[in-house]
What we know:
The structure holds 2 protein chains of 2 kinds.
Chain A (H helix, E strand, L loop, with lengths): L3 E5 L10 H15 L3 E6 L12 E4 L5 H5 L20 H19 L3 E5 H15 L3 E5 L3 H4 L7 H13 L2 E4 L2 H11 L6 E3 L6 H4 L11 H8 L3 E6 L8 H14 L3 E6 L5 H10 L6 E5 L3 H10 L2 E4 L8 H8 L3 E5 L12 E3 L4 H13 L1 H15 L4 H20 L1
Parallel strand pairs in A: 1-2, 1-4, 2-3, 4-5, 5-6, 6-7, 8-9, 8-11, 9-10, 11-12, 12-13
Helix pairs in contact in A: 1-16, 3-4, 4-6, 10-14
Chain B lengths: L3 E9 L22 H29 L5 E5 L1 H10 L1 H12 L3 E3 L14 H19 L5 E2 L8 H10 L3 E5 L2 H4 L9 E2 L6 E5 L1 H8 L14 H12 L4 E7 L3 E2 L2 E2 L4 H14 L3 E4 L1 H7 L5 E2 L15 H4 L2 H11 L2 H7 L2 H9 L3 H5 L9 H7 L5 H23 L7
Parallel strand pairs in B: 1-2, 1-8, 1-11, 2-3, 4-5, 5-7, 6-12, 9-10
Helix pairs in contact in B: 1-3, 2-3, 8-9, 12-17
Amino acid sequence: MDMNILMLGWELPPHNSGGLGVACYQMSKALALQGAKIDFVVPYTADHPEIDFMTVHCATEISPLDRYNFGAYDIYKENSKHKNSLNNMRGLQQRYIKFVEKLIKITKPDVIHCHDWLTMEAGIRAKEITGCPLVVHVHATEFDRSGSRSGNQLVHDIEYNGLMMADRIIAVSGITKGIIMDKYQIPDSKIEIVHNAIDIDDLNDGYKYDNKTYKYMEALKKEGYIVVSTITRFTIQKGLFHFIRAAAKANEKYSKLVFLLAGDGEQRDELIKLAADLGIADKVFFTGFVRGKQWRDAYSVSDIFVMSSVSEPFGLTALEAAHHGNALIITRQSGVGEVLKNIFKYDFWQEDVLADQMIGIATSKALRESLTNNVKLEYAKLSWSDVALSLSKVYGVASRKQTI
Amino acid sequence: MSKRGIVLYLHVHQPFRLRNYSVFDTALNHDYFDDTANEQIFKKVADKSYRPMNELLIKLLDKHPEFKLSLSITGSFIEQAERWAPDVLDSFKKIIATGRVEIVAETYYHSLAFFHDRNEFESQVKIHQDKIFDVFGVRTSVFRNTELAYNDQLAKWAEEYGFKGILAEGWDPILQWRSPNMVYRPHGTKNISLLLKNYRLSDDVAFRFGDKNWVDWPLSADKYNVWVNMAADNSSVVNLFMDYETFGEHQWQDTGIFDFYEDFVSKWLDNPINTFYTVSGAIEAFEPVAEISMPDTVTWADTERDLTAWSGNSMQQEALRYIYSMSDDIIRTGDESLIQDWRKLQTSDNFYYMCTKWFADGDVHAYFSPYESPYDAFLYYLNAIRDLRYRLHHDHHTGGLNG
């Protein structure tokens, strides 16, 4: 592939707050390996020491930490008085757009590839100026982020415009494609599903599990306990109240279960309180936000990984959990379930079903082993180089569509 | 006939606060307590309160032969003073050596064990009595429970144990038409007297003294003296019970609290019919006038005067359930360091930090908490509980690990 791609993103590792940054990093790397020249724009200034396969452009002088204060996933609160201020999401986006306007005069892209509502406006502007085809990649919509609530209307509007102006749309799952069609009335033919993948080489970096990180849980496991975990942001999107209630139900029937909730978020306090209300406070382990070794070891100490999301466009963590030997239980509302068969599924509100599945896996070694072994064969087939191939086809279609 | 008198009783306490003890420490590091922060806080309060107030008390004791007071000093305070400010402990010894300052009995660890584990409670009372004798060379004979948490059962226990007096809150719904300024007899007892806190006059100093929004701010010694004299009219005692740290820590020196009190003591004693009593002194001077019954627990805290600040929410209830369900296993090990850690975790402050009723008195809770939120307090505590379970299991092969 011999193409100049302008990637408009919001985060890259190690400055990511979630899966969006990982996906952007991996697909860019795979595209670069296939010969693409990529200019990737992020809204903050920071070093990306491991990235040598593309040029990272920093749109503003804000630090990645400041940007987390109104993180990539937060609903933006508008304050029109501070239009170009870096203190709010809107101001930051305006500065980002201005930066992109200048950048495209130098880089001369063949295609513009933007990620989620955060950079859609910048993508539209770049398309207006250059006339290049615009590919809008949807990792999550406002409907996903807001759970059962209606979400922020401004964000909906930006998403709608972005989807309308796009030459091609990439959805990370059939679930996301369905939302784009149902909620934004975008025709089927304009949307391509490209599932995310997992880079196993990246995870095989000499990592060794340290059984001291979660020493108490290891001691419990020696006593026959099974660790059920989830690693996520504690937001409404993730359906964690259902998870805790299911945990209490499972605990009534089978007491040798403990629950590891790794992560942080606005619902943390309520979750702690709910566990206490249900009388299982000592069964639920809250780690806070985990990175590096603590993050990897959380997967390793765990036997069963639950993705309880009310709406999850993809759900990369499930693949990471599978890689670390977990049996998976995933809601039918999670996109990752479309690419895996050797997993348990349930609807996010079915607490009894989840409880039942947890007990089933915990009490049957045979079931646990067949799930973990078989799912490994499945995720190993999902590669980012295949994703890159699918992307270049989409770019091709987008360009052709433009020339007609 | 005995003179009417003020019973000044000050409560001296510092808890062993937990550090941010995480899941990643559990079963690996057994150091739950934040020595650095505890030392810092102790030294700060020593400078602001213990040193200047003891200086004032010594001055008042020298100047006024009739000035007397009572102190309750927790074991965890004494341990911290021994480690971080021996001079503060020496100044308390000096005060107590005057013979006009009485020490009140309580639980060594400032716990609410009475409501959860009677044996453990009694052990802690005994340990406290022994420590007080070791350090100050005196025996205690009047009891106060942590947070002044009192009910009829407690009074019966105190009588059987051999105490001659007990302290409680003088709470209106209980007293109804009766005055807190008399000596009473707890319901169902024969040989024990009950002293009830005059919370209005106590809180005027303890809570309102420096509050510029209070209609009576600034409170002068003259004005306060008039109020106390009015309360004492046709009465036996005016029981002014409060935290010792009121002086200098809750009410800073710049509010004028020290000068105010010095002035007030002189003014009160200017009236020849007035005096001061220790708690025992008051009990000896006055026979109980009537019986008082408190079937439900009454404390000196918050507008509700109940235990909800320590056991009102589900997190506190879980934490209490976990810590007291280990009693037998812990005691049986005979492992001193394990038993002490377990007992330090019983300190009521730990549960107070988990309080979520942020209403009228919420600010008080916020002020005293070393944690970001009650939820953090709960998580650190829970991890410490797990580590105790681990030590029981791993070092002593007793007790199952649970969650």
